[in-house]
Amino acid sequence: MNFSQLHCFVALADTGSFTETAYTTHLTQSAVSHALAALERELGVTLLERNNKGVVALTGIGHSLLPHARVLLAQAEAIEQGARAARGLVKGNLRLGSIPPVASPLLAGVLAHFHQHYPDIDVVLFEGAFQEVEEWLSSNVIDVGFVHHPTKGMDSTYLATDELHVFVANGHRLHTRASVMVDDLREESLIMPRTGCELPEIFEQNRGKHRLHIRYQASSHATILAMVREGLGVTIMPRKTLPEKLEGITAIPLDSPHALQIGLAVRSMASASPAALLFLQTAVAWFQEQAAVLPSAR
What we know:
With 298 residues, the chain is an alpha/beta fold. Helix content is 38%, strand content 23%. The protein contains 9 helices and 11 strands. The longest helix has 27 residues, at 60-86. Residues 294-298 have low confidence and may be disordered.
């Protein structure tokens, strides 16, 4: 058993395709197939089921062994990065988990700053909801991820605080209001992100009193804002993760402010890879520089 075989196994589990795995591992499809077959032969079990279209799915034992393979690969990457760092070299891979509230331009700003300082570290971005990012951290799918701060079971570092605002089209009945109460939204059609939505938490205490109607859900914040601009409904999202100027849209704070603390987490500072620690340091420094835009008060 070798790391190349394990890398092919994990890549196949993640992509479900020999074609995509060959591309991401820089091997031929034949080499990927041989690596997996050799690993299965040595272990004496079938890790993946294949069909004639080259699509694969984890078997029961494959699903059980996958987390262990991820741990071994993550530790090997950390060892290689540590050895390079000792020689004065900063190079390697970083798997970063992001969430909708840390969307462009924040994410782009942090990544640009990181690339400027560490151009030889390649970043692979995974995007999902807070819960997905936490699960990815726990199972070694990613090295570092943006999370709610603090997060149990993780070493989380505070980055910034944002507040949720209500976004309405100019001319909407609420657009001249200085603030919006929860009760004001009872008759509104909500357009919400498919992931990373804090709406259930906000209204949990008033679930019986307020009947809110989520009419549309979309993955793209740009799509949501376009729908709001067209008068299809209103939305609730973190204010400072969106452009300062929004054409045709008014941002209104909630009457009872709902703060969203954003952090960056690793499973453990002690076992984090050098690239993950460098990204953490870079992100903290970048967010501090943006203090005028994202207040650092907790």
